[in-house]
Amino acid sequence: MESIQAILNNPYVFAALMALAPLLWILPYALFAIWFERKVSAHMQDRLGPMRTGGWHGWSQSIADLVKLLLKEDLIPAKSKHGLFMLAPYVVFVGSYAAYAVIPFTSAYVGSEINVGIFYFVAVSSLVVVGILMGAWSSNNKWSLFGAMRSAAQIVSYEIPGTLAILAVVMVVGSLSLQDIVRAQEGWFWNWFVFGKFPFLFIAFLIYFLCSLAEVNRTPFDIPEAESELVAGYHTEYSGMRFAMFYLAEYANMFAVSAVAVTLFFGGWQSPFGTFLSGPAWGVFWFLSKGMGFIFLQMWLRWTLPRLRVDQLMYVNWKVLMPFAFVNIIFVGLWMMIAQ
Amino acid sequence: MSEIRTEDMVINMGPQHPSTHGVLRLALTLNGEIVEDVVPHIGYLHRCFEKHCEAMTNYQQVVPYTDRMDYLTSMNNNFPWVLAIEKLLKIEVPERVAYIRVIMAELNRIASHLVAIGTYGNDIGATTPFLFCFRDREKILDLFEKTCGARLLYNYMRVGGLSHDLHKGFAEEARQFIKEFRPTIKELNGLLSYNKIFIERTARVGILPADVAINWGVTGPILRASGVKWDLRKNDTYSLYDRFQFDIPVGTDDVGVIGDCWNRYMLRMREMEESLKIIAQALDTLPEGDVKAAIPKRIRPDPGEVYVRTESPKGELGFYVISDGSATPFRVKARAPSFCNLGALPEFSRGVMVADLIANLGSIDIVLGEVDR
């Protein structure tokens, strides 16, 4: 017993355990979200979706799929750059997983309480682009390369208005730490930033939400993997476990951006009803359910909207979101100056 | 500083590609995202239809082969074939037969347009309208199945008649379908046709001017979307089409410009409503009669030749048949609309972006079974 205590007291072991904790959420969440997405799309389209595997509404379909992908042969194209090809899916996943380090699941738990949390999130989630480019370049497929080029252009440019929208919140709170941002929204739901400094933070939320869709390649901004144009975009050549890693990264990323939207604008782990059902344990509940609400919103959009063209995508970013984000920041700044 | 050397990328699209609607191969020359040139390569589905016809033991046996040309519009493929042979034989069909043929052809036109619209939405990135279209197409297929037993390749029309009479209760079921289908068109319009993103993607894209369209022999919805009011059901009427009241929609410039992808798409929406009108009128005046009475036992037309063309959902479908007096045709030539329409693709796809090329290709609505025959 004492030896276990001693091991836990070792700061490195403790850090490793804390680093693994988000996996407890991501893995079951990804399995659930993939099943959920299939169900959501099916019911929107007058279908039933998976119904057989596991009995009740095909609940274990994702598990069966995962087992299938794990058992599949690890295909590597003969003319690919083998090392890069094998590494790329993990780089993508590392990018989205590292973002979880600063996400405050509850008042008592955050992977790493650093005071530049949101800055770290923006920076580390850009790693995904590197992985995508790596995988596409090394698979030696023109369609993949096409997808990666689009993806890089898209993610890099949408980061700018997204970050500007985040900046508006940071200006209001005066801190880059995500826990501080959540604590600043204490009380009932009208204290959430999405309703605060109306309408400027609401605009900031809209801009951030659109940019987050683009950042995780969801419809209407899913041009990097546009099925009808590029077959599957950057992961065309992948199969088996490596393909599953791309998938896992995509869903992990979806939740990461949703979590940041929740943290910045929807009170994070705060209960919507003041002190009612609040506390660290309920905090996890509120945080995850708000996050899943955003996941559902992303799915809803995906199964409703067509896809933009690559030049229209850039137009929306540079000529619509960017000016709005800048003007918004100026107004939030003015508000803060006047309020002082 | 020397200029950076750039090269066009030649990329192969298809024959296994989700948006080539079958086994079409496009050789694209790309400059970044811009399509410099596109060369369609066809023939992956060639089945020697015309040569097969000469090897049949009689004229009726060709009917199931026409089914397989444009497998989404089998009824419309049977139609010109039986009309051509009847013209060669100089026989008249009973009134009821002609009525049922028109009803079936128009129902099949709606089914075909639904696939065209659904897959087009899919090409643009919206998956849901595709499933909605297939849901409604299913109702038409159910009607066909009850009447002739088949859901895709009907083999329904015969020279001089039909293989089966309508099943009992067809008229009520068809009326029910019309009643249920009208709201669906509205739903599709809301979900796709007037969706801002969809309009952005298709309006003013891939404009095909009327004169170019005519030069390439383009027919059907694509020609009409370019502003040419040309529909064989009116302009060179056949069967009973002169008895029914319906309009021929043409391309408009209220959303995009005449001849763009949006118009080609929207024209099919409008044509479905016109088809509903024709079906409703035909159901109201459907006469009684025996649909098999006039089927000739032995078909040996006098030597001669005939060309009969009809308005299939994709355009002008015509059969040119030469008879040498024997029991089999001496020569058959099919004029397939998808083939001619595909020819115009490079004409309005040079200089567009890759995503627009997909939009252009989808708006032509080709079926490779008909392109290659």
What is the N-to-C succession of helices and strands of chain A?
HHHHHHHHHHHHH
| Order of SSEs of chain B | EEEHHHHHEEHHHHHHEEEHHHH
| First and last CA, distance of chain A | 55 Å
- Largest β-sheet summary of chain A: none
Main pleated sheet of chain B:
3 strands, antiparallel
- Would you state the CATH class of chain B? Mainly Alpha
Helical content of chain A (DSSP H or I, runs of 4+): 55-70%
- What structural class do you assign from the helix and strand content of chain B? alpha+beta
- pLDDT < 50 runs, ≥5 residues of chain A: none
CA-based gyration radius of chain B: 21 Å
How many DSSP helices of chain B?
15
* Cα distance spanning the termini of chain B: 55 Å
Structural class of chain A: mainly alpha
Structure explained in plain terms:
The complex is a heterodimer of chains A (340) and B (373). Chain A has 340 residues and is an all-alpha fold. Chain A folds into two domains: 33-71, no CATH class; 73-339, no CATH class. In chain A, 67% of the residues lie in helices and 0% in strands. Chain A is built from 13 helices and no strands. The longest helix of chain A has 34 residues, at 11-44. Chain A is globular and about 65 Å long. The mean pLDDT of chain A is 84. Chain B has 373 residues and is of the alpha+beta class. Chain B has one domain: Cytochrome-c3 Hydrogenase, chain B (Orthogonal Bundle). Chain B is built from 15 helices and eight strands. Chain B has helices spanning 49-54, 63-67, 74-89, 95-124, 128-148, 170-193, 196-202, 210-215, 221-225, 232-235, 261-284, 337-343, 345-349, 354-364, 368-372; strands spanning 9-13, 25-31, 34-41, 157-158, 161-162, 304-312, 315-323, 329-335. In chain B, the strands form three sheets. Chain B has a three-stranded antiparallel beta sheet. Chain B has a three-stranded antiparallel beta sheet with strand order 6-7-8. A two-stranded antiparallel ribbon of chain B has the order 4-5. In chain B, β4 and β5 form a beta hairpin. Chains A and B meet through α7, α10 and α13 of A and α4, α5, α7 and α14 of B.
